[in-house]
Amino acid sequence: MDFMNKCSLWVQKILYLQKTIYPIINQKYIFMKQIIAIPTSDNCLCSHFGHCDQFRIIEIENKEIISEISLTPPPHEPGVLPAWLAGKGVTHIIAGGIGNKAIALFNQQNIQVFAGVPEKPAKEIAMDFINGTLVTGSNSCDH
């Protein structure tokens, strides 16, 4: 078999894989499980990330909420919350005001941060996240 025929066979194999395997991988990525953490006070988004009473941890799969729990965070000290929430499997933080250093620490843990979200009930924020309508604004925290 000459070089051109071998290349043609490889191209055919690649095209086959692209048509069959790629959509499956892409679909799995879209519908993967996500765990969001929302800092709350009285079950509404707390405007200052580090001063919340609790975190609402919401597990989402296939665009549906499959579990929710409120957890009391450990005492606030620099670097503690990113490690604690990463240990809970959190993939996304949704916050009002959050410091740039905290955002960097979450990013180091492969946790995506949405900042500048307006105060409203945690469940509404979760539904906005699921539906792709989450509103973010300027991050009101300056440290």
From TrEMBL:
<dbReference type="Pfam" id="PF02579">
    <property type="entry name" value="Nitro_FeMo-Co"/>
</dbReference>
<feature type="domain" description="Dinitrogenase iron-molybdenum cofactor biosynthesis">
    <location>
        <begin position="45"/>
        <end position="130"/>
    </location>
</feature>
<dbReference type="InterPro" id="IPR036105">
    <property type="entry name" value="DiNase_FeMo-co_biosyn_sf"/>
</dbReference>
<dbReference type="InterPro" id="IPR003731">
    <property type="entry name" value="Di-Nase_FeMo-co_biosynth"/>
</dbReference>
<protein>
    <recommendedName>
        <fullName>Dinitrogenase iron-molybdenum cofactor biosynthesis domain-containing protein</fullName>
    </recommendedName>
</protein>
